[in-house]
User: Fold these one by one.
Assistant:
Number 1:
Amino acid sequence: MSKIYKIHVPASTANIGPGFDVCGISLSLELLVTVTIPDTSLIPTLSSTSSSIPSSTSSPLTIPASTNPSSPDYSSSPSTNPSSTNYSPPTLTYTGLSSTTVPLSPYKNLITRVSLYVLHSHHLTFPPNIKLNIHNSIPFGRGLGSSGAAVIAGVLLGDLLGNLNLSIQRKLDYALMVERHPDNVTAALIGGFIGSYLKEIKSDDGMDFKEIPLAEVLPEYPENVEILGEDWGKNVPLPPKNIGNWVKWNWLKEIKMVVVIPEFQVATAKARGVLPDKYDRKDVIFNLQRLAVLITALTTSPLNPELIYEAMKDKLHQPYRMALIPGLTEILTSLSPTTHPGLLGICLSGAGPTILALATHNFDLIAESIKEVFKKEGVKADHEVLSVDTRGSWVEEV
Ligand SMILES: Nc1ncnc2c1ncn2[C@@H]1O[C@H](COP(=O)(O)OP(=O)(O)OP(=O)(O)O)[C@@H](O)[C@H]1O
Ligand SMILES: N[C@@H](CCO)C(=O)O
């Protein structure tokens, strides 16, 4: 009998104005990966060395039961190199957004490459004949955390296929090796309104986290299965332990996220490339003051729209990204709680180009006003009214 699992990962919005690379909120849009594992009694162990690799650290959180279903147990099967069996790597099918353009090779697709990184670092590779059906509702390259969700899905997939039982903290460590800003991945993994920071890893600890090139973490894996051998898994950069740290704030249910999504994409790498290496002290203070106020203002009832509106302003990333997003300056200055009752604050969602408006009512009016500005710039946009997802990522056996 095959086993079927579903991996659920939410979208996320990051920064929320002044909290650049700090704040994230997971959203009610989902990336769903359905994993079909053939009769596990026929699946060989993929490496005899896997049991010697420590697979987890202790978790600071209680993991919901649904996050760690009983994974298939390969351990009693004989150790076999897949290249010597009737092996075929995972097959991928996609439905939903970007389903016609996303790579379907398991060695090129972001979700499966990340899962292979997790497996590889445990001296494992894909078990044979896995089927993956991916349904994507998160638009690519719009600032709604599509890559963060794909990375988390990949870590959860690797954990499932390797029967690793990684702790939630260790899963985050793996995700942070791939996406080095913690805001989207932490919100996608944990769920809710999240503040996070990365531990500074000094080189004399044996590894400088920031300096490991992504190409070494996610190498171009060859398109064949002859990749298990004596050295398989020996030179994989392992994540330092406990690099991501987070807090989860209360979220008031009356606050909804109005997201206005332009039709064009802005790659996060490009939107980070326009940022300066150094900032003026006054701009840093501007953000710190607002961020400190924003967290309490957003989590305290009754809400104070004027306070929140000012506290959602930013001088660390949005001013530099205006050149990439036509209409951004006007959008950020022309709507306010006075002109649009119900509006709490407005900012770029993640690296953009999506606009995030936090609001308690008048959602469609707020969205239409933002779309009007985009329209003047010749940009078509859609909108959605989203809720916070408080559950985060989870895996179920169906
Ligand atoms: N479901 C997915 N499957 C495979 N690849 C994906 C998936 N989602 C995202 N990606 C990859 O990530 C890229 C988008 O990443 P990018 O960081 O530029 O934008 P984003 O994550 O949507 O925005 P932001 O980080 O600002 O929220 C896509 O072009 C694709 O290569
Ligand atoms: N904090 C990140 C989020 C995008 O992934 C940025 O703004 O670049």
Number 2:
Amino acid sequence: MKVGLETDQQHRRLVLKALLWMTVAAGSLFASLNIGRELWLLAAGEAFFVLFALSILRIVDRTEHLKWVMIAYLVPFFSLMVLAMLLPGTSSTVFAWIQTIPIICYLLLGLRGGFWMSLVFISLGVSAFSYHFGAQESLLTMMMLANVAISSMAIMLFSHIYERSRIKNEARLIELASTDNLTGLANRMKLAEVLERERSHAMRDNKPLSLIMLDVDYFKRINDQFGHEAGDRALRHLASVLSSRLRETDLLCRLGGEEFAVLLPGAALEQAADLANDLRRHLSKRPLELGSGQQTMTFSAGVATLGEDGQSLDQLMQTADRRMYEAKAAGRDQVVAAGQQYPLKAPDPLLS
Ligand SMILES: Nc1nc2c(ncn2[C@@H]2O[C@H](COP(=O)(O)OP(=O)(O)OP(=O)(O)O)[C@@H](O)[C@H]2O)c(=O)[nH]1
């Protein structure tokens, strides 16, 4: 199952792959042209880069150190560009490549890395250009140099502004896509994403992880008696009451309608069932205020735990869901975990 939106890393991996294929194509072309022009050093550098790009293409999809791979590629890549400008026989048009530096840096390294690497290599590029072509002190050369420096800085500025607003918009988009807009809780997509992460932590550290699925009892009656708006308020009320009883590391989410889930990292089945039961009592002691009076809310819940009840989100949800329906069938306002019913036989003094 594909979880979540495409991340920054995936996006940068794609850009890097495009750059590597461009290097292979352009490097092969320029290497053969420069062999024809007998520029042996430059041709050798370009041929080396074709092989270097091909070797990075082999690892780019599986490396966990993408940022370092990018730096290891970009530093010699840009250095070769600068070197190309110093070689005798190089035409002034090679400077066009310097203007790609900020775009490549910001797309691959983000704001901070992009800024520093652009600054260093644009400065080196402009210096190399001025060293090579600025020997004749004509006004035309000065104008060329000024144009080259200013246009590169302008591209750097635009790339910076673009990357900053892209990062902001992406963060906002991810927040919207992972939030339930009625209650402000996490939604199913967020649950899937966090569960994947917590599942690997739990398996690595040999720690438990449990899931509660809960469904409000007789919710339709609230809608029918007090209207849809009151139903919406009831869902927000439940979200706020349950959130106030949970820890920051627990994840409460609304799956849809009047169905919710709580992911509990570090909790074994029994602890999760106790907590679900506690949430049930907590909610029943905080009735919803309606214009005409108060309405007590209850829910039925099923609990499942990683390992015993399955390894994937789907398996855990299916088991917890089945147990939740057992709780409904057994009379509602209760919790079921592995065939165990809560409240246990002794009556709950707080509810009587
Ligand atoms: N106000 C409001 N109602 C919703 C929303 N989503 C689903 N519902 C309503 O929730 C009700 C769910 O009804 P049922 O599935 O019969 O469940 P129930 O009445 O809680 O009964 P049990 O689950 O069997 O205890 C339906 O009337 C839906 O229209 C929502 O976002 N806002």
